[in-house]
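User: My advisor, Dr. K., asked me to get a structural model of this assembly before our group meeting. I'm new to this, so sorry if the format is off. These are the inputs:
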Amino acid sequence: MESLLQHLDRFSELLAVSRTAHVRTWDPVTVRRALQWARYLRHIHRRFGRHGPIRTALERRLHNQWRQEGGFGRGPVPGLANFQALGHGDVLLSLRLLENQALGDAARHHLVQQLFPGPGVPDADEETLQESLARLARCGSAVHMLRFNGYRKNLNLQEDSLMKTQAELLLERLQEVGKAEAEGPSRFLSRLWERLPQNNFLKVIAVALLQPPLSPRPQEESEPSIHKTPGEGSQALVHWLLGNSEVFAAFCRALPAGLLTLVTSRHPALSPVYLGLLTDWGQRLHYDLQKGIWVGTESQDVPWEELHNRFQSLCQAPPPLKDKVLTALETCKAQDGDFEVPGLSIWTDLLLALRSGAFRKRQVLGLSPGLSSV
Amino acid sequence: MAQDSVDLSCDYQFWMQKLSVWDQASTLETQQDTCVHLARFQEFLRKMYEALKEMDSNTIFERFPTIDQLLAKACWNPFILAYDGFLHCCPDESQKILIWCLCCLINKEPQNSRQSKLNSWVQGVLSHILSALRFDKEVALFTQGLGYAPIDYYPGLLKNMVLSLASELRENHLNGFNTQRRMTPERLASLSRVCVPLITLPDVDPLVEALLVCHGHEPQEILQPEFFEAVNEAILLKKISLPMSAVVCLWLRHLPSLEKAMLHLFEKLISSERNCLRRIECFIKDSLLPQAACHPAIFRVVDEMFRCALLETDGAPEIIATIQVFTQCFLEALEKENKQLRFALKTYFPYTSPSLAMVLLQDPQDVPRGRWLQTLKHISELLREAVEDQTHGSRGGPLESWFLFIRFGGWAEMVAEQLLRSAAEPPAALLWLLAFYYSPRDGRQQRAQTMVQVKAVLGHLLAMSRSSSLSAWDLQTAAGQDTDTDPRAPAQQLIRHLLLHFVLWAPGGHTIARDVVTLVSPWGPASEYSPGMSSPW
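Assistant: The format is fine. Below is the predicted structure of the whole assembly, which you can bring to the meeting.
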């Protein structure tokens, strides 16, 4: 067991080095050995994929490594990321070496020979490295062709395939990080927030929060774990959002109203904070008598239309959320003086607008203008 | 060898030009052209590889100075990269052959910096084939930030994209009037084209299925014919597995595919050495045609092709046997179909009288022994009526009825058995049936003659069945068989059939069975003869 773990360590180092200029010193023998190690670990992955204790030990070792390297979010992962990666460590290594122009002539030649030996007898047992690489190339072209010839961005972000894939990856990573250490996810997310393009990140978080909960598949060890329960990952996200008010504010600002409504319906813990934010935004607006509209004082204040939009969307949500929103609005209106006349309290005006909007909607739909539920 | 190399040089020029025009295959025309040439280009690549692997890098460049450009252009064309040569006998995906060709360019021991640079360049191209093709910068940054490499998430991404496209197609199919989310014909055509090199990639199956099944609302066909052809080839070579509904849609939308499937079946039947019924049944069920034929339009095309085959071969017994097996499989499949969605019989057999169709379609085994004679007489009556009544306006006259009759070999069997088992005078109706079965185009006189002949044979056989010992020779003489007459003449076939039946049913017949079979078979020992066939192989 100990030798296995050492092997793991050494291979992780190897993988890390394969990206650097250090490979200049590699000769054909080194290349061959590196590939052999990779093959060995792939074999280990196949054999012990279902074996609980060994797998756990290996994973723990890998997680320790991350922690020592400063954890994820620091940059592209130098070594192996998780147990799954063992299954295609040889591909990872091969690709890194191929990308690395610092490789010497002899080493390069040997590498290419090893990777692409030419037509030959296929291994009945497992897929050869050449097969794996060819398959990757094919998969890549498939993705490329579909992306440029068929794909169209889905306006419902949670159904967009690019968004969904990123969300699935995020949830998977969060789950792993959570297993490694309890506080891991929050720190990890904070680091990502600092490093990654924030707009995209926020969208991915929203989509991740909307992924359907899948039933956990017990023994699907050897397969890519991209479909494990998103439950834990979602929890971590919610927890992090609640703990980081500026992130949450950006989240609520950047994302469209409909999406936020879906997210808050799904995760009720977020609704009080969301409502609180909306109330804050609302209070920053004042009524301009000349123009007859509510305006903000500073440029970054949320304008009336957007505020109205969000409340309207929330009022179309299913019961628990919808009722909470209305109650909140009524409370605010009461606190402001419970006016019925427009122009005095933004909450009155919002409620009026929402009611008339609902009324008009009922008219359009041909429903009787009876007691509106708003 | 020299001729080969000249050919190669010519081809080289041709493909160099093509690749330059195709570039990255981003327009409709270049994509279409690429799809049409994929298989041939792969052949060329293979030939190149065979040539290149014998040479070293310097020689290669002397021979083909622009080889690096050719290969690079090929690598930048995603259609070529995605293709796998499943149509070829030694399938190796295009990517692999391209990669091998590139590997040949590497200098084992570079003498100067130019050669070194070349090596570097090859490495770069290899790397590009395998890992680049990154599109969205944001997605790339995100995945990298999480610590994922393309190999980790490409399969998942492909799956998501395929499922999303498939569901968009389905929605488009169902909500035709919601013009906002409608899929434009160009986009559909584009998608179908993109699928051509990817047909055998299992991840793409849901998309292929959706493209076939969701036909949108345009009056004319939008999907590219190359797409249909590629799917059909993949189905015939068993390189793709699609649900039956998708296969039916394919054949309904693209007639040449259905025809090709039938021809493929015929080829298999012809090329396989000696076919016993079980193997025929296997081939037929394998072809998916019986299940597909539950759709009347497909049934009619299949039927038409069987008829052509029959007419071309002048009613060859092999074809008849195939048709009978097919019909049996078809009826089995029809039985399994959802009762509510079943079509009326008339749609399958529009030119025959319903009463005749009804009678013939019952399973002969369902008829109780006591009612055989009655049923057979009834059939004979109906057929005779249909055949002799030319003025009814039924298409094709006697042949039409014959086509229907021969489909169901069980009845002919029953007639033979009835005639041989009953000691009574053979009824004319039954004799007529047999004569008609084997020779539908006979005139009245000819048929009457045959009936007389058969009656005589039957008489002899019945007499022999009462004798204690039987010999094959006696049987043959009694049947009036001699070596001069053409063994394939209809009357001879008929008599042979009766002989074989006799041997099966007569007490003591099985002792001489082998001898009889040897004697009467026009091909020699038919060791794979199995009872219940209507004609010997």
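One thing worth pointing out at the meeting: Chain B has four domains: 1-133, 136-173+181-253, 255-348, 354-520.

User: Perfect, thanks a lot.
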